[in-house]
Structures are given as C-alpha cells and as structure tokens.
C-alpha cells in the first residue's frame, strides 16, 4: 500500500488565472475534522478500471453527486462507467447519480455546471478548450473526502464544492469577482450514452423559483424515469430554457445564435436551462432532490430533507454519517493500512442505494409506483458480484440494513412481471445483466446467520419462484437435464455451476425453516455441479443436449459464447463453494487439488490473452482478482489442509492488487465486492460459502481490528508481529484458547472476544491439516 502524502486544503487557484475569488473560512476549518472518515481516499479506483467516483455521498444514499469528465457514446464508455476518469483534464459538470465500480453503466442524471461569463450550450470537445461549457481543472485543486468534494474550474475561476444528504445534493459555487454568474442545467447527457437515449424530458421554473423536471431514458434499464427539484440560495435575474433539438434546426435556417423556446417551461428530448444571477458578492448555493416517481415527490423530498442554506452544516452531517458508519470497526495500523482499510469499507457502504421518496413511494420493476409498508426500499443490486462478500459483510456489520435489503428484494419480486427476484437492478428497474439467481444466497445467508425482521415465508416463496422460472437462463433445461446445455444457452458451464450453488443456499434456508421437502429437492439440485465436471480433462465444461461435452475444448479460452461467463476453465473449475470436499475428491485428493491450485497462480499468462474480455484483469497466473469468479480461490487451500498456502497467496494478492492511488484497484469495484473482499481479508477471514455459518481463516493484514457488533459485543482480531518478515500464521487463539481449526463460526464472532494470530517467518504446515480442522463442505452436512 502507498500512503497518501498530500492533504490538499480547499484553496483556489485565483492567482494563477488572475481572478479574485471568495473562499469561505468555514470550508478551510472543516477539512481539519478527524474521525475514521479522514482516512478515506475517494480517489482510489477513479483511475484504471476501478470505475469508482470521487464525489459526495452518504452511506447507501440516493444521491451520488460527483464530477463527470466524460459521458462518451456506448462504444467508448467502459472506462467512464462512473462518469470520471482520473487521467482526464476537464470537467463537463456535476451530476447526481452514479454507480460505484460497475462494469456497465447508466445514470449521470441532472448535470449542473456553474459558468462565469459567456455561456455555451454544448459541452464541447475536451481536446479544444473553450469549445463548450466544460472546463479544465487541476488535481492540485481537488479535495476528495467522504461526503465532500471540491475543485476549481480553472477556465471560469469558479470554486465548486459538493456535499450530500440521503436524498439531497448540495452545491456551493464561489464565482470570481466581476464576472456574471450562471448555472447551466443539461438534461441531455447520460453515462453510457447513445443517440436517442433520452426519450422525453420536461423542465419548468415554478413561481417560487424552484426548478423541476423529469426525463425518461431507454438506457440499461429501458424506460427509466428520473425527476428532480432544484432551488437556489439567491434569486435569478433571468433564465432561458432551450430545446436544443429544435434550436439546432433553427440555427441551420437562421444563422448563428441560440433561440430560447421559453423561460418558464419546456418539453422535448434535448433540454438545457441557463439560470442567470448577475455579479455575486457571496457564494451561490444550489440544492437538488431527485425522485424515481414524480416532480411532486422530488419537491417533497427537497422540502423535508433540504431545509435551510447552511452548506457547512450539511457537510458536517455527511462527515458525521460516515464517521458513524465506519466506526463499526476500529483499526490500528499505519496510515497506509488505515487508508486502504477505511477506503474499502467506505466503498462497501455505497450500495445498494436508497430508492424511495419521503412519502414511501418507489418505482418497481413493473414501472409502476408502489409504497413501502414499514421499510425503506433499496435498489442498485449487482447481485452476481455482491452476494459473495459485500452482502455477507453487511450481515455481519449492519444486520439492521440487511433486513431492509431483504424486504426490498422481496418487494421487487412481488412487483416483477416475471415473478422473480432481482438479477441486476437499479432504481427499482431490472437490467437482466449477468447470470444466476443470486438474490437467493443473499437472503439465505442472512437467515442462516440470524437476521430476522422480514417475512421468511414470503422470502422463501420468492426464492423458489426464482429458482423455478424456466425461461430465465434456460432453467427449464437445467431442471430437466441437471445442467444447462450449451447448444441451447451460452455460458452454460458457468450457469450450471452457479445455479447449483444457489440451489444449495436455498436448501440451507429451507432446512432451517423446517421445510424439509423444499430442502431435499434443492439439495439434489445442488449436486448438479458434477454434471459439468469432466474427469478426462480435469476441468468444468459445458455439455450439449445429448450429454456430450462440447468440442473442441480449450481451457484457456474466454469470451462471450464460450462455456463460461467472464472467465475460462482455469477460473471456473473451482466454483463449487457448497461442496469443496466433493471437488477435492473429483480432482483426486488433497495433493492433486493443491498442485492444481498452484498451477492456477504460477502459470505464465500474458494479459493480452484477455484483451477482448475487458473484465478479466488483475492476473496472477490464471487467477484474475479483478473479476469475481476468482475471489474465493486463494482460500481453497484451507479445505485441502494447506492453510499456509492460503496465507502466502493472500499476501501475494494484497500486495499486488490494491494500492492507495487512483489506479489502485485491479478491476471494477462492482458496487463494493472488490472492497468487501479487502475488508474481510484484512480482518483475517472470508465467507467462501455464503449461506453457511462459517468463514475460512486466512491471515490478518492489520495489527488490530475491533468489530463493534449490533448486539453490544466487540470481536477483536490481533496479530503479532505483523510485518513482511513474518507472513505466516504460527498459531491462533480464540479467547486465549488454542484454535486448531481454519474456520470461524458466525456465532464465534457474535459472542465477542479476541481472535489472536501469532505470526512467524516460516509456514506452519501442520496447522489446519487434519480433516476436522478444515472448513465445512457439503459432504460434512450429511447430504
């Protein structure tokens, strides 16, 4: 890890551009606030393929107010999935909705840009400064904090500051003295843009100066509607509302110049508003609320959650919200370790996001308006990713929110036209991205670990319905044949394996509820992984409908249309988290299993091999830490009695795949999964099999961490000596007593106490070697 050396204070580059600027003294003082939030560096992941955003938000909040450096067309959008790339040199504005770390994208709603002087109505070319309203900036002028972002727009000499509440984005713009101040609102841009994406938009200025509007897009979730309400701290001197679609046509006939269509209301597909404020003697504040339902709801959100004009108080509230959320774990370590840990925990607490208005209304997957009854509705579900570690982390740290999340998943299923749980949803709408029905293990993991407060029978009904819906991912053939046939469905090996795990997790919850019939049926389906196993080649493969494996076969091949989803046979042949003991047996026993694991990590692989599969990154041999199918693999040595090799591989991964710099994430953070992996691994254990009550033990990467549990207990992890010279676990004690097993039970953690690691220079090959010492697998459940 690399320590963050600079601590930029919010100063302005006025002298550099020859412009005098007003700087609130309170803003300078606010940067000196402490707490765990001070260790967070939101820049991490904003470069490379991390796809995180640096802007202002609060834990699980509806608003993600952040700068956008580009919103390119869909053919070139991958690196700008969060709207911002650290390598860029200009900002086109600040929008209010972003995904954190997604591999696909959308959002970028309600783009706002402060302008001093002449106003241009189009963003312009970043390679041609002055060609549009975008502005150059310097990273030296940026301040990135948990809940706060600031930057100087050097082409205008405007200092922009952003903070956020749960439903409100707060802006403070300090304009240069002697220049007319304007705020431009552009309803055209959208992340992952393409022609015709905006189907329709409305924009109006109310009698009291409130600006409201909506737009409907046909993006990743077709037909998504997002509304907003905006207010300014000072009255407008004038305003102009444009429909650029008709303006451009008008210009073609009437020469240069822009023709405002109306100053009060406008409808169309290319709307821009310009709000004028003259020369200002004090900073201008802007507050914006959004709603997935209506302008009226957005205004109600603004009225209830956006009272007053005290930007510094709102910033302090955002900082306090982060300090409270992050204080669930106290970590002792170097500044670099604290930055890495708390930034990861911060990223893990960004999604799912609140997607409900103050009156309880939300938009469902049927595109209809629903009202939550006694819970808050959350969406932004990258379930193929987050079921692995992100949601188990929330079960451990925030069981109260896990209850809300599960109620949201079940509510979404009951509003679904297809009657199944979300797959990849945001703002209540479904995208059908990725594979599996991984809302099932999210619910099962929570239930097995004691989370209640939701209707378990309704949840089970939703789980069974999702696991039995034949048209989804060729579940019909899977239920008939015991596998997904590759001549009927692409990526069939991955789907067979992931369905089998999801089936197992469903059986676990059914058994715990006393539903033995359901448990028995899905226990049988959980063994379907064996139908993908080819003992001749030693890999998981896809079969044809006639039962034969598809030929020809190359275990290194990856790509759409292959046997696998975002991976190859070297990565997916380990995906049997519910029956690792069975997989070890299929591979020929402990020694052969360990030897093949070593082949994964020690292989010489040219990254160019995956040049056409952009999600496979962070390579260590065939192991690809930048993508989720590999995330459990290093822990599998535990299951074969070689825990010391898990310890060595984890250090290899932590040292090479994470760093405290903008390109410090090896791949997409995927709404917190990469970061949740880091948090668990730094603590010394990991949920290889969500929906069991066990965690595989690795080794810690912080000297001391105290987890403050919701039941009032504290569970402490400590390690001595913790340095590069002592990378291996010599022995472990739990509450002072020797711990000979390489797993923790959830109940061990909830009881409180201390897990202590004695580290040493050489591996202890005996610790965790016996069968009884290893983490559980399906065969040990008596199935």
TrEMBL record:
Lineage, opening ranks: Bacteria, Pseudomonadati, Pseudomonadota, Gammaproteobacteria, Lysobacterales
Gene3D superfamilies the UniProt entry points to: 2.70.98.10, alpha-1,2-mannosidase (1.20.1050.60), alpha-1,2-mannosidases domains (1.20.1610.10), GH92 mannosidase domain (3.30.2080.10)
Biased composition (Basic and acidic residues): 763-772
GO MF terms held by the record: hydrolase activity
Record protein name field: GH92 family glycosyl hydrolase
Domain Glycosyl hydrolase family: start-end pairs: 297-760
Region (Disordered): 762-783
InterPro entries per record: 6-hairpin_glycosidase_sf, GH-type_carb-bd, GH92_a_mannosidase_put, GH92_N, Glyco_hydro_92, PNGase
Domain Glycosyl hydrolase family 92 N-terminal: start-end pairs: 40-291
Keywords: Hydrolase
Record Pfam families: Glyco_hydro_92, Glyco_hydro_92N
């Amino acid at each position: 890890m690399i320590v963050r050396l600079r601590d930029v204070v919010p100063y302005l580059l006025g002298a550099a551009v020859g412009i005098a600027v007003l700087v609130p003294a309170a803003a300078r003082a606010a940067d000196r606030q402490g707490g765990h939030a001070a260790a967070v560096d939101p820049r991490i992941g904003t470069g490379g393929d991390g796809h995180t955003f640096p802007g202002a938000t609060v834990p699980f909040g509806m608003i993600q107010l952040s700068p956008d450096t580009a919103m390119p067309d869909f053919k070139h959008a991958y690196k700008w999935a969060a709207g911002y790339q650290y390598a860029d040199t200009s900002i086109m504005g600040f929008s209010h909705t972003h995904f954190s770390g997604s591999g696909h994208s959308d959002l970028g709603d309600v783009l706002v840009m402060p302008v001093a002087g002449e106003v241009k109505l189009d963003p312009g070319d970043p390679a041609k400064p002055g060609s549009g309203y975008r502005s150059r900036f310097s990273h030296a002028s940026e301040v990135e904090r948990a809940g706060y972002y600031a930057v100087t727009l050097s082409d205008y000499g405007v200092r922009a500051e952003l903070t956020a509440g749960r439903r409100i984005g707060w802006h403070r713009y300090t304009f240069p003295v002697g220049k007319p101040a304007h705020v431009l609102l552009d309803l055209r841009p959208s992340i992952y843009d393409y022609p015709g994406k905006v189907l329709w938009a409305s924009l109006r200025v109310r009698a009291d100066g409130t600006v409201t509007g909506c737009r409907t897009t046909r993006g990743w979730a077709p037909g998504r509607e997002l509304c907003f309400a905006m207010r300014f701290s000072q009255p407008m001197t004038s305003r102009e509302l444009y429909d650029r679609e008709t303006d451009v046509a008008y210009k073609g006939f009437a020469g240069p110049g822009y023709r405002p269509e109306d100053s009060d209301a406008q409808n169309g597909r290319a709307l821009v508003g310009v709000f004028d404020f003259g020369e200002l003697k004090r900073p201008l504040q802007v507050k914006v609320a959004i709603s997935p339902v209506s302008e009226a709801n957005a205004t109600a959100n603004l009225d209830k959650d956006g009272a007053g004009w005290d930007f510094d108080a709102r910033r302090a509230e955002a900082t306090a919200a982060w300090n409270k959320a992050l204080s669930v774990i106290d970590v002792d370590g170097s500044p670099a370790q604290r930055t890495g840990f708390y930034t990861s925990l911060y990223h893990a607490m960004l999604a799912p996001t609140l997607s409900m208005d103050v009156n309880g209304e939300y938009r469902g997957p049927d595109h209809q308006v629903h009202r939550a009854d006694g819970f808050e509705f959350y969406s932004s579900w990258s379930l193929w990713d987050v079921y692995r570690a992100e949601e188990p982390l929330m079960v451990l740290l925030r069981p109260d929110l896990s209850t809300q999340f599960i109620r949201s998943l079940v509510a979404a299923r009951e509003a679904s036209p297809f009657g199944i749980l979300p797959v990849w949803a945001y703002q209540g709408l479904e995208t059908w991205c990725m594979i599996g029905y991984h809302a099932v293990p999210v619910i099962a993991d929570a239930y097995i670990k004691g989370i209640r407060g939701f209707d378990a029978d309704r949840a089970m009904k939703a789980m069974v319905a999702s696991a039995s819906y034949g048209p989804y991912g060729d579940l019909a053939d899977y239920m008939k044949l015991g596998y997904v046939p590759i001549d009927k469905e692409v990526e069939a090996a991955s789907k067979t394996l992931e369905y089998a795990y999801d089936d197992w997790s469903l059986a676990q919850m059914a058994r715990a509820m006393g539903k033995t019939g359901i448990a028995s049926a899905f226990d049988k389906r959980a063994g379907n992984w064996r139908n993908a196993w080819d003992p001749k080649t030693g890999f998981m493969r896809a079969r044809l409908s006639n039962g034969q494996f598809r030929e020809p076969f190359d275990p290194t091949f990856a790509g759409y249309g292959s046997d696998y989803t975002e991976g190859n046979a070297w990565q997916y042949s380990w995906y049997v988290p519910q029956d690792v003991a069975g997989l070890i047996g299929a591979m020929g026993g402990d020694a052969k299993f360990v030897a093949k694991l070593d082949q994964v990590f020690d292989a010489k692989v040219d990254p160019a091999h995956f040049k056409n599969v952009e999600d496979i990154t962070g390579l260590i041999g065939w192991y690809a830490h930048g993508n989720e199918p590999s995330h459990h693999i290093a822990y599998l040595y535990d299951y074969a009695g070689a825990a010391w090799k898990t310890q060595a591989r984890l250090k290899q991964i932590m040292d090479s795949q994470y760093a405290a710099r903008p390109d410090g994430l090896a791949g997409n953070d995927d709404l917190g999964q990469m970061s949740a992996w880091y948090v668990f691994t730094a603590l010394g254990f990991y949920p290889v099999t969500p929906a069991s009550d066990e965690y595989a033990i690795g080794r810690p990467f912080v000297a001391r961490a105290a987890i403050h549990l919701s039941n009032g207990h504290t569970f402490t992890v400590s390690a001595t000596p913790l340095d590069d010279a002592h990378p291996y676990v010599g022995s472990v004690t739990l509450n002072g007593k020797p711990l000979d097993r390489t797993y923790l039970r959830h109940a061990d953690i909830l009881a409180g106490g201390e897990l202590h690691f004695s580290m040493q220079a050489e591996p202890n090959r005996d610790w965790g070697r016996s069968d009884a010492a290893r983490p559980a697998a399906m065969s040990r459940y008596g199935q």
